[in-house]
Specification:
4-stranded mixed β-sheet, Rossmann fold
Length: 330
């Protein structure tokens, strides 16, 4: 791998982990970030900063100039938005802008960060893979729909441009540095702070954010253009996640299991309040709808073709809790 690598969303939770993985591999990194954005995750890292926005093609052209590769990690990841239009502009149109800028600059390869959110889920709770059938109508909420449309648009544009694009589909990254935090990071934080006395029957595939980041680097080096690779770890029920957090902080784990129908009106009230306050609600209708499914996935393709490996996500849960505590999130 030669030449500076551009990482979009480099100051984000996953983007910063990709930056660190590239630096560890001896790469030079240019970090594409928005003006005025929170850059705590880049503090102390030897990176070149390029300011801009995914919807501003000129800023992307300037950022990608002279680069030998692009990691497009940036995305608008929220489970509730008062106005969904900016999310679609960022996730769909912004991704096309990145590919167009890369092709115009002669960049040989792009790694596009999609999500397992766009993949099918098996009703019998067995792990799904890259080929599990899915349709657009199965996408719950604007985030999933925007990422589904974005991945389709990226694949089509890559073929038009004859640009090498390798797609990776992270499952649910966890670990230190979740500054926002992400929706899953919020679950870990609330559980550690004793704010989750109950749970619903759902499940997630968890992966250490740093393992997922190393998977991005492997995808650039070994991935087949046009293919996609799930970068995941281990499947957990929400109850198991809460028990792991409780054991870490010395609390009693939640024991009250709520039926999904019970949570719907709570989410409806929370969203109605959010429309007034303009603050993202802790419980969302889309989040409740998604929680009716067990989102379990297999990373065997990435393990087989990329040499991808993941560590016990329980260690990442512990590291995330320690980070939240040391940064006074409690």
């Amino acid at each position: 791998m030669s030449g500076t690598k551009l990482v979009t969303g480099a100051n984000g939770f996953l983007g910063a982990a990709v930056v660190r993985a590239l630096l560890a591999a001896g790469e030079r990194v240019r970090a594409f970030v928005r003006a005025g954005s929170d850059r705590r995750n880049l503090a102390g890292l030897d990176v070149e900063i390029a300011e801009g926005d995914l919807t501003d093609r000129a800023s992307l052209d300037a950022a990608v100039r002279g680069c030998g590769g692009v990691y497009h990690v940036a995305a608008d990841y929220r489970l509730w938005v008062a106005d969904p239009a900016p999310m679609y502009r960022t996730n769909v149109e912004g991704s096309i802008n990145v590919l167009d800028a890369a092709a115009a600059a002669g960049v040989p390869r792009v790694v596009y960060t999609s999500s397992v959110a766009v993949l099918g889920i098996n009703k019998d709770r067995t792990p799904a893979d890259e080929e599990t059938p899915v349709t657009a109508v199965q996408m719950i909420g604007h985030y999933k729909r925007s990422k589904f449309l974005a991945e389709q648009a990226v694949h089509a544009r890559a073929r038009e441009l004859k640009l090498e694009v390798v797609t990776v589909n992270p499952s649910t990254p966890i670990g230190p540095g979740d500054v926002k935090p992400t929706p899953t990071g919020r679950i870990l934080l609330d559980a550690a702070a004793g704010r989750m006395p109950a749970f619903v029957d759902t499940g997630l595939n968890l992966v250490d954010v740093n393992d997922c980041a190393r998977g991005h680097v492997l995808a650039y080096a070994k991935g087949v253009p046009g293919e996609r690779y799930i970068l995941g770890g281990e499947d957990f029920t929400l109850r198991q996640i809460l028990e792991t957090v409780a054991a870490k902080v010395g609390r009693r784990p939640a024991t009250i299991r709520l039926p999904h129908w019970f949570v719907y009106p709570i989410a409806a009230v929370a969203e109605a309040t959010a429309l007034v306050t303009r603050r993202e609600p802790r419980v969302t209708l889309d989040g409740v709808r998604m929680s009716t499914k067990h989102m379990y996935f297999s990373s065997r393709k990435a393990e087989r073709e990329l040499g991808y490996r993941w560590r016990d996500p329980r260690l990442a849960i512990a590291a995330a809790v320690d980070w939240f505590k040391s940064n006074e999130y409690f």
